[in-house]
Amino acid sequence: MEKLSVLTASLFLIGGISWFFFGKKKEDSSPAEESIRKKENIELDISGMHCAGCAAGIEGTLRNLPGIISVSVNFATSKGYIEYDATKITKEDIIDRIRQLGYDASLNLEEFEKKRKG
C-alpha cells in the first residue's frame, strides 16, 4: 500500500512539473495581428545549463512570454534559437529573462567563450 502511495505522489509531481513547463497555451493571434508582426530570429549562446532539463525550463519560460513565436534550446550545443515578434519583445528582454533564470545568454560568441573559460 505504501508503494502505491509513493507511486501516486510521484505521478502527481511529474504531472505538475510537466504542466508548468509545457501545459500553458498561448492565445492564438488573429490574421490582422499576423500581418503586423515584425518577426525576427536570434541565435543565443547560453551558458550555465547542466542538463536537458535546464534547456526545457528555459524553453518553457520563454515560450510563455508575450511576443515569442517559437523557441528551441539545445543543451548539447549550448544554443538557443528564438523567433519573436519585435513589436512585442526585444532581444534584450529575452536575454534578461534567461539571466533571471540563473543562466547567461549572449549574442557575442567571443564574450560567451570568455565566460565559459573564465
Automatic annotation (TrEMBL):
The keyword Translocase applies. SUPFAM superfamilies: HMA, heavy metal-associated domain. One of its GO terms (molecular function) is hydrolase activity. GO terms for cellular component: membrane. The keyword Isomerase does not apply. It is an enzyme of class 3 (hydrolase). Residues 40-106 form the HMA domain. Pfam families: HMA. It comes from the Bacteria. InterPro entries: Heavy-metal-associated_CS, HMA_dom, HMA_dom_sf. One of its GO terms (biological process) is copper ion homeostasis. Gene3D superfamilies: 3.30.70.100. Transmembrane segments: none annotated. Its EC number is 3.6.3.4. Keywords: Hydrolase, Metal-binding, Translocase. This is Copper-transporting atpase Ran1 (Protein responsive toantagonist 1). It comes from Persephonella marina (strain DSM 14350 / EX-H1).
